Amino acid sequence: MLERGHIEFIQSQLLPWRRIGHGLARPDAEYKMLSRDPADGACSILVRYPVGWSRFGPEHILADEEFYILEGSLEMDGHVYPADSYAFLPAGWTRHAMRSPRGCVLIAFYDREPVLVPHAGDGTAEQSPRAIPHLDLRAMPWDMTLNDPNLRHLGIGRKNLRTDAQTGERSFLSLILPQAVPPGGQGPQEVHPVVEECYMLAGDITGPHGTMYPGGYFWRPAGIPHGPFGARWGSVSLIRFVGGRHVNVWTDAQAPFSFDAPYDPVLPEELRPFAAHGWVPPAAY
Questions:
Q1: Sheet strands (E) in 1-52
Q2: CA distances from 132 to 65, 68, 86, 135 (A)
Q3: What's the gap between Cα 139 and its chain centre?
Q4: Taking the model in full, what pTM does it have?
Q5: All structural domains of the chain with their residue ranges
Q6: How does the average pLDDT of the chain come out, rounded?
Q7: What angle do CA 265, 160, 266 make, to 5 degrees?
């Protein structure tokens, strides 16, 4: 899952919706491919279900599935996942019936090709200590405890979704406060020994590659310096650290910050045509 190219960043609004074919996870819906590992098929996708969508099993997916409901709701075996729900379902988790009476959009992450198998799993996935059947993010408090003084200007809050006890991989919501600016208009850059992946849910955040808005996505391989960052109106993002434990390593040199940084993405060849002109949200006035 670690052989994807550097994507920093693309607005998902620029990507086309495609039909999910038979044999893959959740057929008969639409998806946007955010990133994919050509070696093992691990991928991050947006999925959109039309109003009244349904599918019946039993069936299971040959991949760990992690998802967050962005809009609408999804029902799985009688359990309803409304907007702002999160789950981590290990490979082999059986689905007997799935429905979306009101339609649904979610973001999903798979640790290998999400091949759908048309029969029940062996039941071990449902008993796994790794499983997180459902988190209601609206009911979780923000942890506002600062964990790094170099990020103090962002006023970061977190809602932890998942931390793998063995690998240290982590998923969480990250909150940045409005009017967050690096002191003196500059700051050190940070480096992680693992992949960082991000999908913007709300607000804005500005860095060297421009300003990300809701729907913005990046996949940043290990060892790439990044930052400093600021936010005019604050932001909420879904962040994952993939391939190991998250550690911040800081450069000694200071890098400049500006809210006027132009959109200057780093993208693999297959994504460049979609980002030729960039994207900004519609005016609110």
A1: 7-11, 18-19, 30-36, 43-49
A2: 10, 12, 8, 7
A3: 20
A4: 0.95
A5: 7-139, 149-275
A6: 94
A7: 10
d(CA 158, CA 154): 12
Cα separation, 66 vs 108, whole angstroms: 6
In the predicted structure, residue 279 carries a pLDDT above the cut 90: no
157-163 sheet: strands from edge to edge: 7-11, 216-220, 195-203, 235-242, 170-176, 157-163
The pLDDT of residue 213: 97
Identical fold, 7-139 and 149-275: yes
| Token output for 104 | 């649904």
179-224 pLDDT tens trace: 999 999 999 999 999 999 999 999 999 999 999 999 999 999 999 9
Please, are residues 108 and 45 in contact by the beta-carbon 8 Å criterion? yes
Question: In this predicted structure, what is the pLDDT of residue 204?
Answer: 97
Superfamily per CATH, domain 149-275? Jelly Rolls (2.60.120.10)
Q: What is the dihedral of CA 47, 52, 58, 61, to 10 degrees?
A: 0
What does each C-alpha distance from 58 to 224, 241, 280 come to in angstroms? 43, 32, 42
Task: Tell me the pLDDT band of 3, cut-offs 50, 70 and 90.
Answer: confident
Residue 21 CB coordination number (10 Å): 8
Any idea what DSSP says for residue 23?
T
Which CATH code is given to the segment(s) 7-139? 2.60.120.10
Would you say 81 and 87 are in contact if contact means Cβ atoms under 8 Å apart? yes
Contacts (Cβ under 8 Å, ≥6 apart) of 285 = none
Of 2-16, 126-140, 176-190, 270-284, give the lowest mean pLDDT range: 270-284
Which tokens hold the place of 238?
Answer: 């879904």
